[in-house]
Predict the structure.
Amino acid sequence: MMFASLVQICAAADVTGNWLATEDQADGTTRRSYLNLKQEGDRVTGTARLGYNYANIKQSASNGPDAYSLTVNSGRPNAADFKIDIKLVGEELQIETRRRPNAPLVHLVAHRVAAGEGAKPARLPLPALHKVPYNGLAKTPPMGWNSWNKFAGKVDDAGVRAAADAMVSSGMKAAGYQYINIDDTWELDRDAQGNMRTNKKFPDMKALADYVHSKGLKIGIYSSPGPSTCAGYEGSYGHELQDARSYAAWGID
Protein backbone atom coordinates (compact mmCIF):
# COMPACT_ATOMS: atom_id res chain seq x y z
CA MET A 1 0.00 0.00 0.00
CA MET A 2 2.84 2.40 0.83
CA PHE A 3 4.53 1.65 -2.50
CA ALA A 4 1.26 2.32 -4.34
CA SER A 5 0.87 5.66 -2.56
CA LEU A 6 4.38 6.72 -3.53
CA VAL A 7 3.72 5.81 -7.16
CA GLN A 8 0.51 7.86 -7.08
CA ILE A 9 2.34 10.91 -5.68
CA CYS A 10 5.13 10.68 -8.24
CA ALA A 11 2.63 10.38 -11.08
CA ALA A 12 0.47 13.26 -9.87
CA ALA A 13 0.32 16.43 -11.92
CA ASP A 14 1.70 19.59 -10.34
CA VAL A 15 -0.82 22.25 -9.23
CA THR A 16 1.93 24.82 -8.70
CA GLY A 17 0.98 28.16 -10.23
CA ASN A 18 -1.49 31.03 -10.16
CA TRP A 19 -5.12 30.12 -10.76
CA LEU A 20 -8.11 32.36 -11.52
CA ALA A 21 -11.81 31.44 -11.37
CA THR A 22 -14.50 33.88 -12.50
CA GLU A 23 -18.25 34.01 -11.78
CA ASP A 24 -20.55 36.39 -13.67
CA GLN A 25 -23.08 38.03 -11.34
CA ALA A 26 -26.60 39.24 -12.13
CA ASP A 27 -25.64 42.88 -11.47
CA GLY A 28 -23.04 42.84 -14.26
CA THR A 29 -20.01 42.37 -12.04
CA THR A 30 -17.59 39.43 -12.14
CA ARG A 31 -16.48 37.76 -8.92
CA ARG A 32 -12.85 36.65 -9.10
CA SER A 33 -11.23 34.01 -6.92
CA TYR A 34 -7.50 33.31 -6.95
CA LEU A 35 -5.30 30.50 -5.74
CA ASN A 36 -1.53 30.92 -5.68
CA LEU A 37 -0.18 27.41 -5.10
CA LYS A 38 3.13 25.65 -4.63
CA GLN A 39 3.26 21.86 -4.59
CA GLU A 40 6.07 19.82 -3.08
CA GLY A 41 5.28 16.12 -3.23
CA ASP A 42 1.81 15.72 -1.75
CA ARG A 43 2.04 18.99 0.22
CA VAL A 44 0.44 22.16 -1.15
CA THR A 45 1.16 25.64 0.28
CA GLY A 46 0.32 29.18 -0.79
CA THR A 47 -2.55 31.64 -0.54
CA ALA A 48 -6.18 31.92 -1.57
CA ARG A 49 -8.28 34.98 -2.32
CA LEU A 50 -12.02 34.40 -2.31
CA GLY A 51 -13.82 37.70 -2.82
CA TYR A 52 -12.15 40.31 -0.61
CA ASN A 53 -10.60 37.81 1.79
CA TYR A 54 -6.95 36.77 1.50
CA ALA A 55 -6.15 33.53 3.32
CA ASN A 56 -3.07 31.41 3.91
CA ILE A 57 -3.04 27.66 3.38
CA LYS A 58 -2.28 26.17 6.80
CA GLN A 59 -2.20 22.53 5.79
CA SER A 60 -3.09 20.21 2.95
CA ALA A 61 -3.96 16.57 2.51
CA SER A 62 -4.08 14.34 -0.54
CA ASN A 63 -7.67 13.65 -1.53
CA GLY A 64 -7.13 11.17 -4.35
CA PRO A 65 -5.29 11.43 -7.70
CA ASP A 66 -4.43 15.08 -8.43
CA ALA A 67 -6.83 16.19 -5.66
CA TYR A 68 -6.14 17.97 -2.37
CA SER A 69 -8.07 19.25 0.61
CA LEU A 70 -6.72 22.60 1.80
CA THR A 71 -7.25 24.15 5.23
CA VAL A 72 -7.00 27.95 5.04
CA ASN A 73 -7.30 30.88 7.45
CA SER A 74 -7.29 34.65 6.90
CA GLY A 75 -5.22 35.27 10.03
CA ARG A 76 -7.65 37.89 11.29
CA PRO A 77 -8.55 37.83 15.01
CA ASN A 78 -10.95 34.96 15.82
CA ALA A 79 -11.10 33.91 12.16
CA ALA A 80 -12.17 30.29 11.71
CA ASP A 81 -10.46 27.81 9.42
CA PHE A 82 -12.30 26.78 6.27
CA LYS A 83 -11.77 24.15 3.61
CA ILE A 84 -11.05 24.35 -0.10
CA ASP A 85 -11.05 21.12 -2.11
CA ILE A 86 -9.18 21.21 -5.41
CA LYS A 87 -8.75 18.71 -8.23
CA LEU A 88 -6.65 19.14 -11.35
CA VAL A 89 -8.48 17.88 -14.47
CA GLY A 90 -6.45 18.50 -17.61
CA GLU A 91 -5.75 22.26 -17.70
CA GLU A 92 -8.57 23.11 -15.29
CA LEU A 93 -8.47 23.32 -11.51
CA GLN A 94 -11.85 22.34 -10.10
CA ILE A 95 -12.62 24.00 -6.77
CA GLU A 96 -15.26 23.33 -4.12
CA THR A 97 -15.65 25.48 -0.99
CA ARG A 98 -18.13 27.26 1.26
CA ARG A 99 -17.66 30.99 1.70
CA ARG A 100 -19.22 30.72 5.16
CA PRO A 101 -19.75 27.61 7.33
CA ASN A 102 -23.50 27.48 6.64
CA ALA A 103 -23.33 28.73 3.03
CA PRO A 104 -24.10 26.54 0.01
CA LEU A 105 -21.26 24.59 -1.56
CA VAL A 106 -19.65 26.64 -4.34
CA HIS A 107 -18.21 24.95 -7.45
CA LEU A 108 -15.60 26.91 -9.42
CA VAL A 109 -13.32 26.17 -12.36
CA ALA A 110 -9.98 27.98 -12.44
CA HIS A 111 -7.36 28.40 -15.15
CA ARG A 112 -3.71 29.35 -14.94
CA VAL A 113 -2.89 33.07 -15.13
CA ALA A 114 0.30 35.14 -15.08
CA ALA A 115 2.41 35.17 -11.94
CA GLY A 116 1.28 37.84 -9.50
CA GLU A 117 -2.24 38.21 -10.88
CA GLY A 118 -4.68 38.36 -7.99
CA ALA A 119 -1.97 39.22 -5.48
CA LYS A 120 -2.31 42.07 -3.03
CA PRO A 121 -1.43 45.45 -4.58
CA ALA A 122 1.82 47.07 -3.55
CA ARG A 123 1.47 48.97 -0.28
CA LEU A 124 1.29 52.71 -0.90
CA PRO A 125 3.35 55.05 1.32
CA LEU A 126 1.36 56.79 4.02
CA PRO A 127 0.89 60.57 3.62
CA ALA A 128 2.80 62.87 5.94
CA LEU A 129 0.98 63.68 9.18
CA HIS A 130 -0.60 67.12 9.16
CA LYS A 131 -3.20 69.00 11.16
CA VAL A 132 -6.68 69.08 9.68
CA PRO A 133 -8.72 72.14 10.68
CA TYR A 134 -12.24 71.56 11.94
CA ASN A 135 -14.71 72.09 9.09
CA GLY A 136 -17.90 72.35 11.13
CA LEU A 137 -19.31 68.99 10.03
CA ALA A 138 -20.99 66.42 12.30
CA LYS A 139 -21.76 68.77 15.18
CA THR A 140 -24.51 66.31 16.09
CA PRO A 141 -24.64 62.55 15.43
CA PRO A 142 -25.67 61.94 11.80
CA MET A 143 -29.11 60.30 11.73
CA GLY A 144 -30.42 58.29 8.81
CA TRP A 145 -31.02 54.92 7.14
CA ASN A 146 -28.47 52.44 5.81
CA SER A 147 -29.32 49.90 3.12
CA TRP A 148 -27.38 46.87 4.42
CA ASN A 149 -29.63 45.71 7.28
CA LYS A 150 -32.64 45.62 4.96
CA PHE A 151 -31.24 44.72 1.54
CA ALA A 152 -27.62 43.58 2.03
CA GLY A 153 -26.29 42.79 -1.47
CA LYS A 154 -29.73 43.19 -3.09
CA VAL A 155 -29.84 46.98 -2.73
CA ASP A 156 -30.79 48.79 -5.95
CA ASP A 157 -31.99 52.15 -7.28
CA ALA A 158 -35.67 51.41 -6.66
CA GLY A 159 -35.05 50.32 -3.08
CA VAL A 160 -33.13 53.49 -2.26
CA ARG A 161 -35.88 55.67 -3.73
CA ALA A 162 -38.50 53.78 -1.71
CA ALA A 163 -36.47 54.30 1.46
CA ALA A 164 -36.31 58.05 0.80
CA ASP A 165 -40.09 58.13 0.31
CA ALA A 166 -40.61 56.20 3.56
CA MET A 167 -38.24 58.48 5.47
CA VAL A 168 -40.53 61.39 4.66
CA SER A 169 -43.94 59.70 4.93
CA SER A 170 -43.14 57.98 8.23
CA GLY A 171 -42.25 61.25 9.96
CA MET A 172 -38.60 60.27 10.45
CA LYS A 173 -37.40 63.24 8.38
CA ALA A 174 -39.44 65.59 10.59
CA ALA A 175 -37.84 63.94 13.64
CA GLY A 176 -34.35 64.78 12.39
CA TYR A 177 -33.32 61.83 10.23
CA GLN A 178 -31.46 63.18 7.20
CA TYR A 179 -29.37 60.53 5.45
CA ILE A 180 -30.16 57.78 2.97
CA ASN A 181 -26.96 55.73 2.80
CA ILE A 182 -26.14 53.22 0.05
CA ASP A 183 -24.01 50.39 1.42
CA ASP A 184 -21.89 47.81 -0.44
CA THR A 185 -22.50 46.13 -3.86
CA TRP A 186 -23.25 49.20 -6.01
CA GLU A 187 -19.78 49.10 -7.67
CA LEU A 188 -18.91 47.64 -11.08
CA ASP A 189 -15.27 48.35 -12.02
CA ARG A 190 -13.06 51.19 -13.26
CA ASP A 191 -12.93 52.69 -16.74
CA ALA A 192 -9.73 53.30 -18.70
CA GLN A 193 -9.11 56.50 -16.70
CA GLY A 194 -9.57 54.73 -13.37
CA ASN A 195 -12.98 56.24 -12.62
CA MET A 196 -15.37 54.06 -10.65
CA ARG A 197 -18.43 52.81 -12.54
CA THR A 198 -21.73 51.65 -11.08
CA ASN A 199 -23.28 48.27 -11.90
CA LYS A 200 -26.66 47.41 -13.43
CA LYS A 201 -28.53 47.96 -10.17
CA PHE A 202 -27.64 51.69 -10.25
CA PRO A 203 -27.94 52.90 -13.85
CA ASP A 204 -27.71 56.63 -12.99
CA MET A 205 -26.28 57.57 -9.60
CA LYS A 206 -26.62 61.31 -10.29
CA ALA A 207 -30.36 60.94 -11.01
CA LEU A 208 -30.76 58.90 -7.82
CA ALA A 209 -28.98 61.54 -5.74
CA ASP A 210 -31.17 64.23 -7.29
CA TYR A 211 -34.28 62.26 -6.31
CA VAL A 212 -33.17 61.89 -2.70
CA HIS A 213 -32.32 65.61 -2.55
CA SER A 214 -35.79 66.43 -3.92
CA LYS A 215 -37.19 64.91 -0.73
CA GLY A 216 -35.15 67.29 1.39
CA LEU A 217 -32.74 64.51 2.39
CA LYS A 218 -29.02 63.83 2.00
CA ILE A 219 -27.46 60.78 0.39
CA GLY A 220 -24.33 58.89 1.42
CA ILE A 221 -22.37 56.05 -0.14
CA TYR A 222 -20.06 53.26 1.00
CA SER A 223 -16.58 52.32 -0.15
CA SER A 224 -13.57 50.52 1.27
CA PRO A 225 -10.06 51.81 2.04
CA GLY A 226 -8.75 48.49 0.73
CA PRO A 227 -8.55 47.11 -2.83
CA SER A 228 -11.87 45.26 -2.35
CA THR A 229 -15.02 45.92 -0.36
CA CYS A 230 -16.39 43.53 2.27
CA ALA A 231 -18.60 41.93 -0.40
CA GLY A 232 -15.69 41.58 -2.83
CA TYR A 233 -16.48 44.57 -5.07
CA GLU A 234 -14.06 47.28 -6.25
CA GLY A 235 -12.54 49.27 -3.36
CA SER A 236 -10.95 52.73 -3.27
CA TYR A 237 -7.34 51.75 -2.49
CA GLY A 238 -5.07 54.06 -4.47
CA HIS A 239 -8.08 55.97 -5.87
CA GLU A 240 -9.34 57.76 -2.75
CA LEU A 241 -9.26 61.31 -4.12
CA GLN A 242 -10.49 60.22 -7.55
CA ASP A 243 -13.45 58.43 -6.00
CA ALA A 244 -14.28 61.37 -3.74
CA ARG A 245 -14.44 63.57 -6.84
CA SER A 246 -16.73 61.06 -8.55
CA TYR A 247 -19.05 61.00 -5.56
CA ALA A 248 -19.19 64.79 -5.52
CA ALA A 249 -20.01 64.85 -9.24
CA TRP A 250 -22.86 62.41 -8.61
CA GLY A 251 -24.23 64.67 -5.86
CA ILE A 252 -23.30 62.45 -2.92
CA ASP A 253 -23.27 64.56 0.25
Q: What stands out?
A: The domain at 144-250 is CATH 3.20.20.70 (TIM Barrel). The longest helix spans residues 157-169.
